[in-house]
User: Fold these one by one.
Assistant:
Number 1:
Amino acid sequence: MSNQNRIYKGGRIDRDLAINFKFNGKEYIGYQGDTLASALLANDVHLIGRSFKYHRPRGILTSGSEEPNALVQLGLGARTEPNMRATEIEIYEGLEASSQNCWPSVNFDIGSINNFLSRVFPAGFYYKTFMWPPSLWLFYEHFIRKAAGLGVAPTVKNPDRYEQKFHYCDILVVGGGASGLMSALAAGRSGCDVLLIDEKPEPGGYLRNTSAKIDNLNSNDWTNEILKELESYDNVTILNRTAVMGYYDYNYLTALQKVTNHLPYLSDKMPRERYWRIRAKKVILAQGAFERPLVFSGNDRPGIMLASAARTYLNQFGVLPGKSVILFTNNDHAYGTAIDFANKGAKVTIVDNREDIPSELSDRCNKVKIKIYPSHSIINTHGYQKIKKVEIQKVDQDNNELTGSLREIECDLVLMSGGWNPSVQLFSQSRGKLEYHSKLNSFIPKDLIKNQKVVGCNNGNFNLLEVLKNSYQAGLDFATELGKSANKSLEIETAFEDLEFTEAKVEPYMIGKKKVTHGSKHFVDFQHDVTAADIFLAQREGYISVEHTKRYTTTGMGTDQGKTSNVNALALMSHIHNKPVDNIGHTTFRPPYSPQTIGAIAGRNVDHLFDPERKTAIHQWHVDNGAEFEDVGQWKRPHYFPQKNENIHDAVNRECRAVRNSLGILDASTLGKIDLQGPDVAKFLNLIYTNAWSKLEVGSCRYGLMCNEHGMVFDDGVTTRISENRYHMTTTTGGAARVMSWLEEFLQTEWLDMEVFCTSVTEQWTVLSISGPNSREFLSSLADVDISKEAFPFMKMKEGKVCGIDARIFRISFTGELSFEINVPSRYGLFVWNEFMKHGKKYDITPYGTESMHVLRAEKGFIIVGQDTDGSVTPKDINMDWIVSKKKEDFLGKRSFSRSDTRRIDRKQLVGLLVNDKKTVLPEGSYVVDEAKPRPPMDMIGHVSSSYYSPTCDHPIALSLIKNGLNRMGDVVKIPLMSGKVIDATITDSIFYDKEGARNNE
Amino acid sequence: MNNTNSPLQSKDQIKSSNINLEYMDFIGKINLRIRDVDTDVLNKVSAYLGYELPKNSGEVSTNDESRTAWLGPNEFLIQCAEDKKDKFIEDLNRNLNECFYALTDVSDYYITIRLSGEKSIEVLEKGCPLNFKEYLKNKNTCAQSYISKGTVLIDRLSEDQVFDILIRWSFADYLWDWLSDSCSEFTN
């Protein structure tokens, strides 16, 4: 029979829209508006899963995000998701879900053997058991990992789309229940920009489930009226199915919105979830409260649920989850559920641990034939896969003893209510302080942070009329602070909640007199199978701080983060230590409020959008011509251009030889470029660079080293005087932004009178570097300027047309060969490159990548800042003292060169290294030692900073920073490799090829 | 012979009822630096352009010939038709002779992506942390910020949602892909 527990009418479901879904492979029918939990209960399915540790059968405890038990594996294949709360999953056509943590099935689970071995698995079992021998940990770990966790993560890539959104608002209201609606209404009427966020598919919260009356309207209809008004305001945004996850400084909050994941798969264009990053001027927390379970032996069986949850299933979903119902409570409020159930035809018995039941309550119960056992407690339950009966006994209120005879009552549903805990998680995340409320026996917000209010049950107020009025006022107050006011006051005269929650104890009744043992299983934390006995054990073993108890027993951990268990655990500790709960303290709350997908945090920063790939104007040519790329910062630079079956070594050797013998071409566009203008540029450069710039003529280039204030090499490059007051600076590829900031920093904070403007022009220019003995002849046929040796010497710049395009031609070289760097506006970059490739055929023009560039420059001993320097290297250390002016009055870093540390002679200095075996290419980063020992530690004298096979020299070459290296020419040092092998190398000059620089001056 | 090339020329443009993404051909873009205390120089530029230079953050001044965005207290971006750019630079250089200023052609430095349609702000909000209720509310306003991981200048051209997004050449491919991806939710 389908939907056997569904009542004929009522609730917020649409009985005309049947929905087919599968649970554990079996087909069921639910209705539009059902959650998986409500639909399963309607079909009399109570057994949902198995518990974490003991594999005990578990059902549905709650009706919301605090659910610790009813966690299921949702969906199949790549879209499967573990630990999804059945109480929150809205059913849709074709939904498939299954039980977790059970094998072979939820009905027969081998793991449940743990339940009978529970005496062996108390709190701290792992810590005690797997300590010895330590060497076996890796063996144990294999099995522990296997046993850990509940559901199964998908093993393939997540195909879903997750979006993100930044949002700003005047007032953010978290929670769309009675209080949140009122605050949003007041703020909305005042014209504030309001964002109202609610976890559920529709706002209303508890008003959807109760029989409260507001101004003679039932609470459901009243809620709809309010919502209608709110929806009519353009300045109010309502987000349903959205949970605020994090509450950070200055009212920055994050929220996760379910956009389509309550629906069948639609299209890959629609996001499944949207992650909101919200900055609110004011925040009103109106999250309500969670009902507290009671702690008694066997309180975890399927068919035992919170009273308010049962009322939700009855009134909101039209599901009567049991017909023979026992309510176990300690407060008046829960009687409302009992009466609702009785009115729907259930046989209800109330077990109330209080002695004095208000006569109004007992009279009303009598009318619907509810039997009440005052001063009674449930002390045990029966029924393996579903509750069958309970044992109750009288409690002597004076001495907390059980007295009288044991009574057994058969039932098919047990409801429990131990009072209510305000939902203080987000408030606590925001650094708000909590205080213990002795009547509610729970924590409520105490010290608010700035621009924040907490209203309604969330603030510990359970009187409906007061809640409505105060929450409205909170909205008004914030609106006033924002300079706005409502033209309507709150018209509510009466709000009548038939049974109000005012107080509840959390005291030893939860244990009864039945001995607390690991066999008796009074569950405190359902999800992690933490029992009262575990809490006792932790205290006995000295874990008496609340943080220690949490970690030792794992209470309050897991996907629900103790929303139902925390206060009961604290109350137990209080009982054990005979101290008030506020002396016990509480653990801290951290984001996220409830589990959230990593996908939503990543958003669209995945795949090719994970990080920008910066591309030059020539990029597509490189791709089309088979370049292998290297990441240089965010740039994609061609690493080398393999032909046919070439590997990197073959390709690099070929490319290097082409440059040395004929003509190579490099895309050097990634170099940082800064346009400097103003009458004081030369003066400025004098301070920025270590060498002198005053006499640089128009059309001339000069290489410069920049040092930071500590005298350490910071960047290098060639700067050219384009015209009287205009210079073109180049920087390293990775250093461009850093240098630009550096220049601006000094202009804006130190040298305010200096007339210099800097503008980044990196991408304005595409730079084609041609290099090789044929480069002049080649270029002369394409340029309209005289580039003969006499007319265009080294370190000069000319403007003219190249391939018909206006260009700047720089006669500079990073390879040691005759070279030209041709700069053209980027839009022409690819055109000129293609022209070069076409006209260069005669010279077998060879594109080369960064690897060959590195080899070629290392053959010449040219440094790369950041590779041969590391922020601790002075110009002198890299044997470039020649570039440090001795005449200039000042420049950045100058003062530091007189420090004793920068002057000492045994600093690491850049030298060449030649391996004695003539064949080993040393790994870059290798340690250099004088004396090799069998194993580390060894006294390190330096490291290898650059190392290549040089096709020009036909042997490996390396650059190395070695202590006092410049004075140790010819010394043999040792380089121990990871393999254990030790290589001997000889310290040499750092220039390996064409020491005289003759080739460059061809 | 077409000897120019843009990083976005092979991209598929998006046209739909509520969101459009287009690549704009090269536009003349001139970066102008003048100290805010040098009112004479500012006046000379204003006189040439035919309008007051924007004085505050987020302002854009414009006429039929050009539009100038405020980038900083002493920095502006003049945009004009590509074929007018050289003349603008030449004239301004002549007018400002002897003054302390800097004019830099950045026409190829920035690529312009135009986002328009009623969902534009929703697309931008996915990756741009600006409060669009406060910034870029009206036409002829601009703001510098980032969209996802690209630094941008956003220039609002119309009371309708029409935005020119200026991004450095090297990031253009990335930003286009990001924007195009973000539009997909609204293109059905």
Number 2:
Amino acid sequence: MPASLSRRDFLASSAAAALALRAGRAAPSERLTLAFIGAGGIAGSHLGPLLNQSDTQLVAICDPNRQRAESMAAAVDKHYGTRGGRGHDCRVYRDFREVMARSDVDAVLVATPDHWHALVTIAAARAGKHVYSEKPFSRTITEGRAMVQAIARHGVVFQHGTQQRSDGLFRRACELVRNGRIGKIHSVHVAAPGGRQSGPAVPQPVPDWLDWDLWLGPAPWQPYSPQRLDNGFGWYFCEDYSAGGFISGWGIHHVDIAQWGLGTELTGPSEIEGSAVFPTGGLCDTPITWKVRYRFGDGPPIRFTSDDEGPDGVTWEGEGGSVWVTRGAWRTTPDSLAHEPPAPDEIHLYNSRDHHRNWLDCIRSGARTIAPPEVGHRSQSICTLSDIAVRLGRKLRWDPAAERVIDDETANRLLSRAMREPWSL
Amino acid sequence: MNARILGGLLLLAGVTRAAESSRAEQEAALLAQLRGDPPAAARQAIIEPLSLVASNAAIPVLAPWLGDPQRSHAARYVLYRLGTPEAVAALRAALPKVDGKLKAGLIGTLADLHDAASVAPIAEALNDADTEVSGAACRALGRLGGPLAAARLRAAHVPEALAALRDDALAACAEQFIAAGAKGEAEAIGLDLAGAARPAASRVLGLRVLVAAGSGQASALLEAALRDPDRTLAVNAARLLAGVPGADVVARLSGLWDALAPPLQAVVMAALGERGDVAAGPLALRALASPDATVRGAALHALGAVGDAAAVAPLADIATSGRADERGAAREALARLRGAGVDEALGKLIPGPSAAAAAAALGDRRYAAAATLLLAAAAGTDTKAAAEACRALAKLAGPDAVTPLVKVLCAAADEDVREAARAAVTALIKPQADPAAALAPVLAALPTSAGEARRALLGVLAELGGDVALAELTKAVTAPEPEVRRFAVQALAETLDDPRALPTLLTIARGPEAALQPAARQGWLRLLGHQAAARPAETVAALADGRDLWTGTAERRLVLSVLRQCRVPQAVQWAGELVSHVDVQAEAEATVRYLTGPQRDGNQTLPAVTGPEADAALEAVQAARGIHLPAGWRLLDLGETNPKGLARGADGAFDLECSGADLWGTADSGLLVARPAKGDVTVTARVASIKETDPWAKAGVVIRADATPGAACAFSGCSAHNGALMQWRATASGETQYQPAPGDAPQWVRLTRHGDQFVAELSADGKAWIKIGEQTVKLPAEVLVGLAASAHNVGAVTRAVFESVVVAAE
């Protein structure tokens, strides 16, 4: 059976790194300075929560798409301008390396397309900057391991964007499972929204507001098309930029919760197999629906599917009951389990009430975040292996310690890929 | 099928190492395609599958590409995945023949392949004038590791800009030495990096290496770094020191404590808390007395992990009378303390100045043995402790605590105590197998109770519900005390949730006591709403009887919420009438739209309410919003948009204004202006303009199954800046697909239905038409035909102007 984390690793709560901030905004010298790398839709969802922190200052927005970067910087300046700031301090960058070279930037939020997560995170760690990175963790397993190593080497604080861990419903569900309230687990089902099919990518001249070569970065070269740039039906569902589309893009949220509930966060499965339905044409080439099965040693089978196979979320079924949890809802069998908090001598999982605040507090205290890099890498690895398994259509035996597929040369070739020059880990 | 997916799926046909002839055939076919020099855009579709089946036979084709800027990455992509000694040799051989980006790429790939033979040539690149190349060399040597790589990195004179990268690579080499058991080599690197003349970031790397290598010099260097003026160095040293294994670390930190600045003390304390070593308990207690709030906060948290019974009294003291922002943390720590004697120590604080905090902690800890002690505290004179004791008993006591808690409730002069006792009684009765029998103490106390106590007991009954509760509350609405009557009405209206209370509430709503009427009216309406979905006709009849009760804004809102559940014409008519009330206009409009459109309810579809009542209600909605459209045309919001859409139309000209996320995906967000049609039909329009709220703002002609956001549909239109397109959603709530075509507005668009076939066309002049696409979409015979638009920007409003709109039935 895989190693379980000691209880002390989980004995932390949001009070762990709480600061006694005075009411109102912190003095400029006490604020953490932040930069956003990536100014697209998901970056926008982080803007409000971070602008409204009293002890942070957003000083830079970076995106190869100048329109997006300028629009977001203007919003930042407007926000600070109405709060007594100078209203023009947020600088715009095209190339993230210039942001990393700024000694006055303490931390970065990485909201780029997936294929950039590794390089930007590693560059930030090397520059001594703390990182909040959107999920998925990485595009390949090799990249993920390199990220974990760089973060540890430089001792920066990292938060993975699996924000469900800071949602009390998920924590309570995992505590029930971890404390054996539903008895021995005999099956687990993880279900996430399915992928998409799109029309073709229509090549067009590169607009003057976009550095297409930089946007592509380490990914294979392709001509510019607005369809490829669109994250609704473009890059998000392309294998060049993402490992399996929503297998990683959405699946990692619930796979990560399944890991948390089972206590297998620091290891990986021993076998994995599955099948998928792929688009029949168009730009998107990642699975639309999938059915994957994996297990840890002789542990219970875990089904990981698109949500046409069952309710979105995570369901653990045990000999004494069951727990199902998703965003905004959960259900226990028996019902009474939902009202049973853990006793003092039972496992109390890390209690974070706000994912951004947890990251910021941990930056100041040095404490571990609720979604640290090794955990993110292991959850991502399950998603990446799922993508490989459905493409190959056969069972893979995985060595989680060596991070290699056993006796399958083709599968091992898919664990990584050569980056487009001049980029490298 | 997408060629790349096909390439991958070929492997599903059972291609394994055993089926070499099949792999060879595939490889040969793919190489043949590559030799044909396909355009760059098509190349990756060949490269990806080739990378999975390639053998050394691919090397002669690909190796020459390594020096070609247009094809080098494609060659490396395959050769990297091939990974044979021959492939690696080909990559290595190319290294001296290229420069700039290509060289940087090759260096990276050789490092990815862990090619030890490449260390020497890559080390040469450390001196390259191109920093992309020398930087790549630094990174690569760090990943390759080994004595030669480490030595070359240590000896290299790299430009200032690469010094940090070089040091990172050295640290990576050290990690590999440690993994291989060569701790001496690692220590040498660590001492080098940690040298006092180095920048702070490099010193941090070095200290980390020394700790990982178990160096005997680590602790002394870390303690020195704690006193360094560079804050980054000091903070990292503090964390590292607190993580060093060994029993003496806590003792050393205790000795250094007073010399540390408060920010460092906070960092050390947080790290000790994570470490979980109970030897840190006394230090954490000492830190509680710090004048610095961050230090105290870190200590409070750490004590939950490292504290024991000795921490109980100080924590309880803070939880009682500490700063507001620390009381909660102290309480959390009390709940988490481990070790023998903690619960007993808490018990000893009752009674006493910290009794309330101790009681709360015992409840958090579910220490059932404290029940007797807590019951005594609940009945005591310390009201704060009494209230906390009641709350704790709710969590840990058994059924035998109900009777004494009822006594506490009845005797309490303090409202907080009484409320806490009430909640506890309710919590303890609810889970019992026979709650009605468990009510006995409450019923026994009721006749002799009065005032607040009586209301609290009735409150218990209201929460628990059942026949007895209904009877007692119904009796109580005629009690002599006005406050009891008011409470009973409120309980029947809001808490009990029993439709058998409807007649009582109706009587009170029409009764002589004005003070009771609002609660009774609203409660009556609320309870009607609970039964409406199951019994719509009965509910509508009851509403008709009770029209005199629709008197205020709150009542009208409740009426609308009831009507939403009654999908009958009368309900739509009333909702339409309520549109004229300004105070509920928005809700009334939403109710009309909800009822006049089909809705999904789980796996079933609720049909739309149609007929003259529905038409009249929709007319009322449009008139209220100032929307003027030709007869039979309706404005229908697709999804929730803010602001709501507006439209004007006459003589074939339409002007739409709307927000919305997009007409796309599984649900559209924007505006629909349409009329019903049956059978084969064609809709034509000239899209004169679209205001560019986003390059993907859209406007065009549409045929939809209905007005739900996820309806099956076909669309022919333009975007503001990304050309024209045909879109279709084949099934309700299915994904949308599209076929692009060139041309922004102004543009003529046309959509024709022949049975299940839909044809989308474009024209520059309305005369010569070009087909965009033809698709099969199964729609019902009766559909909505018209115009649709979306701003593709929920924060903006687009304006789409249409001319010459014609809907022609065939």
